[in-house]
Design brief:
single chain, Surface presentation of antigens (SPOA), Chemotaxis protein chec, 353 residues
Length: 353
């Protein structure tokens, strides 16, 4: 039209074009890639299932009772969602990854569950979560995590190492130390000595993706992802030659894992040959240092002050090596010692002579 105005047909055409454009934008924005896919969860569930069986066997050996740990659920949660499942105090056993895999990692359970596990470790009736109970809890999970890391190494080719464990009692779930944003939770059914309960293991998202092999920062997945991009048409020989050394790097840990297992089996067999060897068990009430003149001046009624406080646990030594702590009891007019704290099995084996 000569006056500069638009006809109805021209207006309809413009509106149709705007609708097409908005539809295209909406379609492109509606297909975001999931942070942790169903395939990732399935892979992690398989690894966690093997690790759970190994952890259960390890704990059964330590406490001499039947322990069964099974994976109940693997999902991605947020901090608010995770906290909402607890209504009371919690205990968090922190074991952050510092080598091979990096990121926040811990076991979290209700306080009641922590008391049950600590009582099993200490071979006592369930009681309060004292410092000694938390120490026993930490030792138990330390052995379990070693078993889990061996399984992860065998299954994924990634050899994780954790920082020194620490157990923290929280009066409120809001005090839990959790990753920002989304993170991965593995929920276990934990059955020990006929008592069933639940506990959660949490992984920072990037750490979980490394364990499952889906981390985009890893060398392995890059060629597959790059082949679909605009660079796929340039220098194809570069992309085809890159995967070969990357696959070799990933395979190496799997090749070495059986050698580690063989060494462990050998150690167990050698220890079995020594099981009937007699050793001297000593209970040490305490120690002190004295001058020679004071020792020579000792007589009937002399009081020797020891370095232990009244009520403090006594030490149990085998061939002079500390293996446990306990409290003095009287049994039929004879003294005895009730064991209250066990030095870890690996530490005890390493000190035997």
């Amino acid at each position: 039209m000569g006056d500069g105005s638009l006809s109805q047909e021209e207006i309809d055409a413009l509106l149709q074009g705007a609708d097409d454009l908005s539809g295209t934008v909406e379609m492109e924005a509606s297909v975001p890639a999931p942070a942790f896919s169903d395939g990732d969860m399935s892979t992690l569930q398989g690894i966690a299932g093997k690790a759970a069986a190994s952890m259960g066997n390890t704990l059964s050996t330590i406490i001499s009772k039947n322990v069964e740990i099974k994976v109940a659920q693997v999902d991605v949660v947020t901090k608010d969602t995770f906290i909402s499942q607890f209504s009371d105090g919690t205990v968090q056993v922190t074991a952050d990854y510092i080598e091979g895999v990096f990121g926040l990692h811990s076991f979290i359970m209700a306080e009641e569950t922590a008391r049950q596990v600590a009582a099993l470790m200490m071979a006592q009736e369930e009681g309060e979560l004292t410092d000694m109970a938390l120490s026993a809890l930490t030792e138990g999970f330390s052995q379990m995590i070693e078993a889990e890391n061996r399984t992860i190494s065998d299954k994924s080719g990634t050899a994780p190492k954790c920082a020194d464990l620490s157990s923290m009692r929280n009066s409120s779930p809001t005090e839990l130390q959790l990753p920002e944003g989304e993170f991965v939770r593995v929920r276990y059914n934990f059955t020990a000595d006929g008592n069933a309960t639940e506990l959660d293991e949490i992984f920072e998202l990037n750490a979980a993706k490394v364990i499952t092999g889906s981390d985009t920062g890893q060398v392995g997945p890059q060629p597959g992802a790059g082949s679909s991009g605009f660079q796929a048409g340039f220098q194809p020989s570069t992309f085809t030659s890159a995967p070969q050394p990357q696959m070799n790097v990933g395979v190496q840990p799997v090749q070495f894992a059986p050698l580690t297992q063989g060494e462990q089996s050998g150690i167990t067999g050698n220890i079995g040959l020594l099981m009937d060897v007699s050793m001297q068990l000593t209970v040490e009430l305490g120690r002190t240092k004295m001058l020679i003149k004071d020792i020579l001046g000792m007589g009937e009624g002399t009081i020797v002050e020891l370095d232990k406080l009244a009520g403090e646990p006594v030490d149990l030594l085998v061939n002079g090596k500390l293996i446990a702590k306990g409290e003095v009891v009287v049994i039929d007019e004879n003294f005895g010692v009730r064991v209250t704290d066990i030095i870890s099995p690996m530490e005890r084996i390493s000190t035997l002579e």
